[in-house]
Amino acid sequence: MSDLELRQRCHTILPGQRQPTPAATFAAMAAWCEANDVAHDTYGEGALIEAFEQKIAALLGFEAAVFCITGTMTQVTALRLACQDRGSRLVALHPTSHILRHERGNHELLDHFKALFIGDAHRPWTVDDLRAVPDALGAAQVELPMREIGGQCPSWDELNAIKRHCREHDIHLHMDGARLWEAQAGFGQPLMSICDGFDSVYVSLYKGIAGLGGAVLAGSPAFVARARAWFHRQGGNIVHRTPYVVAAAMQFDARIAAMPHYFARTEWLYQLLKDYPAIAVNPARPQANMLHLHLPVSRERAIAIRNQVAGEHGIWLFGRASHAALPNHSVVEWYVGDQLLEMADDTVRQALDLLVAGFTMQVA
Predict the structure, then answer these.
(1) What number of other Cβ atoms are within 10 A of residue 26's Cβ?
(2) pTM for the whole thing?
């Protein structure tokens, strides 16, 4: 049985947002389109998509924004243009950047720019890390929050110091804001204030927003217009963006409004986890509605525990598990969304009891 099939058989799923069936999703989209008299866009031109792009731009404090079919295309394009503007092909990236970890070398193979690692792999990079770079940078990327290290963020003061340094040294500052909506509650600042000082910001429409896919890039009108042209050149000029925009737009306001509640549930979860000292949590305090659990078992054993709990109890503990730096340890991720928000406290405790029991019990 595949992981997907096993997960689908579970009645209780801890991480992430609820996943309606395609039939339920499409029915809700159809009803929303009917209620709002939605017409298809044509190659990105249309009332719905243009209004939604402008809504995102205004929310983040920019003049313009453009939809793109994938975040992978969005970010390397933004950084390519930034490098053209600054006359340097060097981009400072954290070692855990999505571009480096999950995009199969597209930034180099497609000749977008040259990546320069900055900072330590286990913490957000700092303004001191940036000052230590002797080369002229075209751009620097900050991910808020940093998914691969448990949702960590730089402090508010550190973030503002990075903004000042980039402004003073004419470095294009780009935000990987795939989970920016999740970072706002941790910062306790308006989205516009977080984005102020960035030259461009990418946000996802399918992670915390739970849409079908797609992304939005915000920036100056000229920068966004050039990005739109480059998306076309790379095959992103699909005839109708309507399904992706509708899937995001119809629930966007509700998802944004829910983010503080997800964060409060994350704070509660941190308190609960104090009762389970065998599990180490990263970061040490909640900074977004996500966290990493460091388990005292190998990746293979963690997956075996997950599968046994799923098969015997119908509880899905986590998705992927990763090898940890220490032998016989592993790391799993919890995204605190609808599932954990609405779950009874006793059910969460039961799930943790089963997970910890698996550390010492024989796994089938």
Answers:
(1) 15
(2) 0.96
